[in-house]
Specification:
Elements (H helix, E strand, L loop, with lengths): L5 E11 L2 E8 L9 H10 L1 H11 L9 E6 L8 E7 L2 E3 L3 H13 L9 E9 L2 E10 L2 E8 L4 E9 L2 E7 L3 E6 L12 H15 L16 E11 L2 E8 L3 E3 L4 H13 L8 E5 L5 E10 L2 E8 L1 E11 L13
């Protein structure tokens, strides 16, 4: 028998630089909490909410690398919307590619009024804080989205992660970074199996250690992913981010790009006005800039583009023995 009867769930799907993002428009029970960060904690423990996450992430409606969000009220009237990001293993603290998709969706759906030509700011409360997606339009079409992230900072350098030396930085979520050549790999699709194995091993080695703790809020702790990168030239890198339990980001990873900027800035390799060209394993690109500094770290803007791929009405037949589905990886 299925897990539970369910009414329709309405979604609009986007991809940002190849990475999927499923925006749930309707059909989710109300998620209580005073702030978006509070709601993330409540969602994790609420079976009614997590039922919907599993249904939309797992096969046959999703897949092992699926990503999406629930829309929730913002923390206050200063933001246009709030959001909880999710994947097959739970709820993330940040999602840059999702923020880009949400900016495009907010303008294209009319949720936020935008001029047909010029830039419109979409302010979004996410678990890591308040971010802004600046949506640039021409002739009423979205051309690009640049999101200004929460401050990014370096947490640790040259840390042992099960025999591999890594750097750890925060960009809304905590990431370990390692040069692919240092582990005998290249960021190429033909080596994806080995890249996933390396990313999982590094993440697992750092879990529960001091470098996995957020400096000020335990709710933001935990190593979210491993960024494995190739140096292609000055301020030009290609990466694959292996996050959660072996999921692969097809995009260059938005919040991970912010974390990379923090490390490059600490090395003196990137300053305000410089542009990091950050490629993904499938050849798509984000452009990143440092636009400010504070005691908390560097403020970054990460620019990309998102495209709508479809609108969906998902249901669960009460006689469907697979229930919320399955994951093969």
């Amino acid at each position: 028998m299925a897990d539970a009867p369910l009414s329709e769930i309405l979604c609009t799907d986007y991809h940002t630089a190849g990475e999927p993002f499923r925006i749930v428009i309707a059909g989710v029970p109300q998620i209580p909490g005073a702030t978006v960060r509070d709601r993330r904690e409540r969602a994790k423990d609420d079976e009614r909410i997590d039922f919907v996450r599993r249904l939309l992430c797992h096969e046959p409606r999703g897949h092992a690398d699926m990503y999406g969000c629930f829309l929730v009220p913002p923390d206050d009237a200063g933001a246009d919307l709030g959001v909880l990001f999710w994947h097959k293993d739970g709820y993330s603290t940040a999602c840059g590619h999702g923020t880009i998709a949400l900016g495009a969706w907010a303008v294209e759906s009319g949720r936020v009024e935008a001029a047909p030509d010029g830039a419109t700011d979409v302010v979004i409360d996410v678990p890591s804080g308040r971010v802004t997606a600046r949506v640039s339009c021409r002739s009423a079409r979205v051309e690009s989205v640049a999101f200004r992230n929460v401050p990014a900072c370096v947490l640790a350098r040259d840390v042992d992660a099960g025999g591999t030396r890594v750097d750890v930085a925060y960009g809304g979520a905590i990431y370990a970074s390692v040069a692919a050549k240092s582990i005998g790999l290249e960021v190429e699709p033909r080596q994806l199996t080995e890249l996933i194995a390396a990313g999982r091993q590094i993440k697992q080695a750092l879990e529960g250690t001091g470098v996995a703790r957020h400096p000020s809020d335990q709710r933001l702790s935990g190593v979210y992913g491993t960024i494995i990168y190739d140096e292609l030239g000055p301020l030009h890198q290609r990466n694959v981010t292996v996050f959660a339990d072996g999921e692969v980001d097809r995009s260059p990873c938005g919040s991970g790009t912010s974390a990379r900027c923090a490390l490059l800035a600490a090395d003196g390799a990137m300053s305000e006005g410089d542009v990091l060209t950050h490629d993904s394993i499938i050849g798509t690109t984000f452009l990143a800039r440092i636009v400010g500094r504070s005691a908390e770290g560097v403020t970054t803007e990460v620019e990309g583009i998102a495209h709508r791929t479809g609108d969906h009405r998902f249901v669960l037949d009460p006689d469907d023995g697979l229930g919320t589905g399955f994951v093969l990886r």
